[in-house]
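Bumping with the actual sequence this time:
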Amino acid sequence: MSYSERVQNHDGGHPMRRDHEEKVIAALRDLGPLSRAELARRVGISRTTMSDITSDLLGRSMIITVDGDDATTRPATVGRGRPATRLALNPRAGQLVGIDFGHRRVHLVVVDAAHRLVASEIRRYPSESDWPARVTEALELLGELGRRDDVELAGLHGIGVGFPGPFSPRMPTFDTDDHPETTPSEFVRNRLREQYAVPIMIDNNTRLAGLAEAVWGGAETDHLVYVRLSDGIGGGLVIGGRLVTGAAGFAGELGHVSVRLDGPDCRCGKRGCLETIASVPAILGRCQELGAPVTSLAELRTAVAKADPLVDRVLRDAGEALGRVLGTMAITLNPAEIVVGGELAQLAPQLLAQAQTMINWELQPMAGTELKLRLATLGDEDGALGAVAALLHTSPLLANYPHPTDSAAGTAADDDHQATDRDAS
């Protein structure tokens, strides 16, 4: 029985095997092509075990062999005889997948072992689509990516999923009509694991988008508020250099802060939530109520370019509501900056200008405080990229963030491991 067969189980691999694999991949990522003997010395395991591990990685297309002439990143071997075969990362291999489920679309990204983006695709579905239909779309899209010549998914290590809110990975609270025995997030996890036997991490998609903006978007601050204006509204908080999840995992649900008690009914069961005023559907609906023929983001962009007064009124009204919520966050948390992402942020400057005015008003008691809104630098793939960032778990922002586990709640051993990590940080 091979090393892989001895330690692999139905969850995608024993932790010891994964640890050895990750060390091999890290060495190849940092040092370039290496022989099996060189890898065994650097990782600290026997050549026999290294042979089993590399054979498994080769079989899953995670690594490839390169001839001496191809191993340009390594010095030539001195001495007689044929140079030892060197191993290198497969530039086509997708190691991690990030999936961001929105209300009307799913976005997938694939990242290779060198942490480079190798694929990014989007697929749309009707807003009324149930979770079986949404997951089917995601699996079909991932399958299409895996059949491309430039993407290889045989060596997949993990999948991160951004789930629309209100959502907490710790407290699933509602069921699907089709599958009353499970929550939507558990249904998503189970379907993905049926197809890919790898660890699945699920968290709020907007929190993950905020993480991506902080990690890859150029946010050089330990104090950040992120908000995404899309089909829904959500946020992410970075406080003291840590991504904040909150006691129950719901931190950042800005879209369901009530700003008008006599406002429209919200899908969450309350009235006048920010999402009923400043989300894409709310703004499009309000434009139509006032007589502006705006039924899509493309038509909204055209109306903004023409300075349609009715559309301008709707956007400034939404900006005022957004500014009230963000102003409260600003005076409470005192962040260094507020980053606004999503489709609306890119096409409605008057919305952001009005929000900035309201924030400035709220900050008056804090003399000398200046806080600017800025547009997010990442596009619509931010949530999927954040899911990958959480899987990598290398950013200091994630010092207190739970490690990805194979179950929704984790095991007692996982909890003990996380507690040890927190005590050590």
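The tokens above came from a reply further down the thread. The mean pLDDT is 80.
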